[in-house]
Amino acid sequence: MSSQTGGIGGVFRDSQGQWIIGFQGNICSNSPLHSELQALQQGLVVALNRQLVPLEIETECPDLIKAINVGNTSHNTLVNNCRRLMLQEKMLFLKHNFRQANGVAHVLTKEVLKKSKPFSVYRFVNPRVMFWIY
Hints:
Nucleotidyltransferase, domain 5; 3-stranded antiparallel sheet
């Protein structure tokens, strides 16, 4: 499989749904699952570095949940890295969410694709995602 340039984005919210922190970055990916795994891995690193626990992860990608639960031979190293990071978290849940509820992550991903940008973490709401938050 050939790699293509892509983007990742994610957001952390508190138990009331309020923005805590967001992230985005450019990646090289060979499949949608590969992109989702990279987003999960980067999000877990941010969560660990910022001590954002307990953590509940929502994804619209059932293949991501399946890969974490039962493995994936094409992306075994990345799956194992995510599993290792997840074990470091306390009270971690990975569950399915519908695309409509994941609008902020999609806006962050689309924004990073418009320009080559290194990995960024936002402590404050990125103005380009305000529509999706409020």
